Amino acid sequence: MNEEKLNILKNFTLLLVDDEEALLDKLHTLLSLFFNDIIVAKDGQEALDIYHTQSIDMVISDYSMPVLDGYGLCKAIRQKDRYIPLVIMSNYSDKEKLLSVIPLALAQYLIKPIDYASLTATLLSMIEQIEVNGLDIIVINDCISYNRFSKSLIDKGEKVTLSNSEISLLELFIMKKNQIVLMEEINLCLDSVEVKSKQAVKSIIYRLRKKVGKDVILNIPAYGYMFKV
């Protein structure tokens, strides 16, 4: 059951922050088992700049960092978003640090060194926050929404049938919403059984546009498409 829940994380973008390069690489490798899309930063300010310019679903950050520490980063993010799951890591259990982060409503506080069991427990806590706060629901427009957990497209309360490739493509667009998605990225995400000729890919996009709206999936000539929400 927990493994099924953890598989859901492949639909979310994680921002991972730590100033220790070796640990950052190690955590990135481990978390890649769960996330398809991980963006890394080496200090709080770099992470905050990324948060303001890219679509981020979850944040795991070290506490002690130069320029802007993990507390400052999470406080700035929490002022903008009350619900995004946040996790702070530290090398030791420090009462003052633990007390200072209580108002941030963290999903978890991780003590280094981090083992697999504590990491997966933390990820499950983050998923629970997403479910409780309805962050698994992507509102596409006034009538249409998509549930990233059940992989269901809902139009005016009715479930719309999606093929595997349409689901993969829609989730790629959601992950990169308001960004140009290149045709190469689209080809890579499609179901392996699909014919990937130029015309076949256009046909899948055409079918998906009929279901979510032409004004949502914009054609960017010579580059690809943009999911505009």
Structure description:
It is a single chain. It is built from 9 helices and 12 strands. With about 230 residues, it is α/β, with parallel strands linked by helices. The relative contact order is 0.10. It is elongated. The strands form 3 sheets. Strands 2-1-3-4-5 form a 5-stranded parallel beta sheet, sandwiched between helices. A hairpin with a 4-residue loop joins strand 6 (about 135-140) and strand 7. The model has no long low-confidence stretch (mean pLDDT about 90). It folds into 2 domains: about 1-130, Rossmann fold; about 140-225, Orthogonal Bundle (Arc Repressor Mutant, subunit A). Helix 3 (about 45-55) packs parallel to helix 4 (about 70-80) and helix 7 packs across helix 9 (about 200-210).
Strand portion: 15-25%
Q: For the residues shown, what is the average pLDDT?
A: 89
Highest-level CATH class of the largest domain: Alpha Beta
- Give the biggest beta sheet: 5 strands, parallel
Q: Report the CATH architecture of the largest domain.
A: 3-Layer(aba) Sandwich
The fourth-level CATH homologous superfamily of the largest domain is: Response regulator
| Strand neighbour order, sheet with most strands | 2-1-3-4-5
Quote the distance from N terminus to C terminus.
32 Å
**3D shape:** elongated
Query: H/E series, N to C?
Result: HEHEHEHEHEHEEEEHEHHEE
Q: What is the count of structural domains?
A: 2
SS elements, strand count? 12
- What structural category characterises the helix and strand content? alpha/beta
